[in-house]
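Workshop exercise sheet. Pairs work together: one partner reads the sequence aloud, the other fills in the structure field after running the prediction. Swap roles for the next sheet.
Pair: D.N. / O.F.
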Amino acid sequence: MAGKANFNITPSEIRSAATNMETSLREFVRAYKNIYAATSDLRVTFQGEASNAYNQRIEQYRADFVATERSVKQFIEFLQRYSGEATRTEGDLSNVAKTLPASRRG
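Structure field:
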């Protein structure tokens, strides 16, 4: 069938991807929290209309950063659940296969 894709991804590869995403997410969170810490420090030394405009604008992005963090966390949790379920299913199939009678040929 044209256009059909075949993906061969193991549960351990999925777990590894989730772990890598967790690391990247921690770096992302650290970076955006550092932005807001620096912005807070800047408020002390840089005041006036321009400072207020900048601070208001940067605060508008906070909800986006938090929403991104939440979405990525949910995806990581999905990958972890899926890899666990795939591992259990693979084990169950293996156990069932072991109970099949041996071939009479051979």
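Discussion prompt: The chain is about 80% helix and 0% strand. What would you look at next?
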